[in-house]
Each structure stands twice: as structure tokens, then as C-alpha cells.
Task: structure prediction
Amino acid sequence: MMPFDMKTSIFTYILVNHIYSLVLGVVWYRNRTRRWGIGFFFADFVLKSAGMTLACLRHTPPHAISIVAANTLMFSGTIFMLFGTARFFGVRLRARPYVLYVILFTALYAFFALIRPDIRVRIVLFSGMLLPVVSHSAWIVFSCPDRELKNHGVPAGVTFALFAAVFFARVVFALTGDPIASYFHQPIMDSVLTLLCQVLSVFLAYSLLLMISNRSTGQLHRETPPMTPQEPGADTPAPWIGYRLYRRIFPLKGLFR
Result:
């Protein structure tokens, strides 16, 4: 089987991620007065774009930046996505446990990247510690008591659940599969799972935009008063003197009632 060109695939993914970051930035700016967590969605894509950009410059900056900082940014982006999902569906989360969670991930990842390098363990750490995060995001969507709001978020919830399945599969194959020489020379199965993550990221961005759009449309419909039939001249003065005279003569009944 022909091997995947991971460098080209990741470069394409970074480009698409930057485009979606720009789109979500515009959406956040236009809805910045609404406390829907759109800023957290925007931060997620910005951090992931920055992290993957640093990861592709692996031989230029030191490993502390191109490996540890890059993956910490991507990991933190998923945490922001969780908080954005919670804000959108009206769920309150405490920030302190997740700050400690990010610090723990950074410390463990730095140890297995700088002190005792092991790509297999790093894949297990990254995917294994993100598994409960995306699972929590899916649970927030599907447990929402507001039926209309939950319907808006079903595509995003399905995407979070698929992310959880892919992360679980990556952990299993990292523990039981062939040795991994480098991130750009992975076994075929892990390469497929990496590509699935990229496809799901694109689908997640589309699901978020659809979710925001549907909620905005629903809110607009609720705020718009229903139109009622009105007789001629009810809101504005009649432009004809004859019509005014007719109303003075026939105030209760007439051809126009």
C-alpha cells in the first residue's frame, strides 16, 4: 500500500485550520455581545493552528517549543472548546481543575519529549488525556434539557463522540502497534487515524458554524412580533382626502372593513 504523505496532509490541514480560525473570528466579532462561548471556539482553532505550525517547524526551533509548546497549545485548544460548549449550552465549569490538568499534561509531555524521548508514550498521553475532554463535550450536548438547543448541537455532539472514538483507537494502536520512528513516519493505521482527526476537525468547524447560525435564526424568530393584517391607513395617515372624508362619514362600517 502506498504510504501517506503526512507532511503534505498536515500542511493542508494547517491551511484549512487558519481559514476556519479567520471565519470563526469574524463570527465571534459579529456576536461578541452574546455569551454563547463563541470566543472559546475561536481560541480553540487559533491555538491548534499555532500549535501545528510550530510542530511543522520541528528542526528549526528547539524541541521545547516545536514539541512541548506546540502540543500544549493544541491540548489547551481542546480545553477551550470544552468551555465554549459548556457556555453555549448553559453549563458552568470550574476553571481551576482544567488549569491543573493542562499543567500535568505539559509536565508529563515535556518529560517524555526532552528527558526520556518516547513518541509512543507521547501519543498515549495526548490522545488519552484528551479522551475525557471530548467525551465531556459530547455529554454536555446530548444531556442538554433544552430540546431546541440540543437539536442545534447534535452535529457537534456527534463530532465530539467520533473524536473520542478516534482518540481511544490511537491509544490502543500506540500501545499494541508497530514501533513509531517519528511523527511524519507513522505506521499506516496511525496515519489513517491522524487523517480522521483532520477530517473531524473540518466537520467540527462546520458544525459549530451551523449551530451558531441556527440559534441566531431561532432567536430572531422569537424576537420578531407576528404580523397581523391591518386596514389601509391604520399606521400611516391616508394620502387621499376622499378616504379621510369617507372614514368620517362611515366610522364603523364600510367597504374597507
About this structure: The chain is about 75% helix and 0% strand. Residues 33 and 55 are 34 Å apart (CA to CA).
